[in-house]
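Subject: for your reference before the review

Hello V.,

The reviewers asked for a structural picture of the protein, and I figured it would be easier to keep everything in one thread rather than splitting it across files. Below is the amino acid sequence we used in the manuscript, unchanged from the supplementary table.
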Amino acid sequence: MTTRVYDVKKQKNTLNRIIVLILIIVEILLVSRLVNNPSLIDQGFVSTLSMISKVLIIPFESMFSSWIASAMSTQSVVDVATVISMAMYALIASVIIVFSNILKDNEDRVIRL
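And here is what came back from the structure prediction:
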């Protein structure tokens, strides 16, 4: 007589996939804010992206101001609040993923017939 073994596994990665998807969307919005030329802010699509990403950096904007670096004839602006918010959102997402993996029941159920 043969024994058949069926592995019934839980959906382990659904929450992790959703968190990573949300993180990717947030990071794309913040990168678009970081690389946009300030002279294009008046354009329609760029203006919309800037408004959406502005909401994401509000918690960090009061703590970190922009750095302005001046060279001979050029001037560049580094938006520190955007860079810090990108790092913090990635850190928050990774902490949520680690805690969800810790709290998850990792035992697989095996049915033997």
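For the response letter, the relevant points are probably these. The chain has a mean pLDDT of 75. The helical segments are 14-35, 44-61, 80-103.

Happy to draft the paragraph if you're swamped.

O.
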